[in-house]
Amino acid sequence: MQSSRSFHSDGASKEALHCEIEKLKQKDLALDQETAQLLAEGYSLEELEKHISLLHEYNDVKDTGQMLLGRLAVIRGVTTKELYPEFDLELAD
After folding, report:
1. Alpha-carbon distance 49 to 29, whole Å?
2. Name one Pfam family in it (predicted).
């Protein structure tokens, strides 16, 4: 027999999942609309897919660079921020 507490918890979990699903559906719709807008502006799907692929590659390289800066900062006993000028990086980089 399920206690009222676990029932309430399961209900709350189901509600949270339902909300998350709805948010993802809305995000999917917004992305579809954005894609349609870009296509209407003359971009091709292949061009958009290539752009997305390049953005993923850029983010992977940036993440790797951040990880290396973090490790170097630990070795030197400084903050990552302190290394930025040495490598001509801006904080927004």
Report:
1. 18
2. Swi5
**Residue where the block lists tokens 């029932």:** 7
Helix/strand/coil for 85: helix
Domain boundaries, the chain: 1-43, 44-93
pLDDT tens digits, one per residue of 28-85: 999 999 989 988 999 888 988 999 999 999 999 999 999 999 999 999 999 999 999 9
> Helix and strand tally (H, E) in the chain?
3, 0
Question: What's the length of the chain?
Answer: 93
Distance CA 77, CA 45 (A): 47
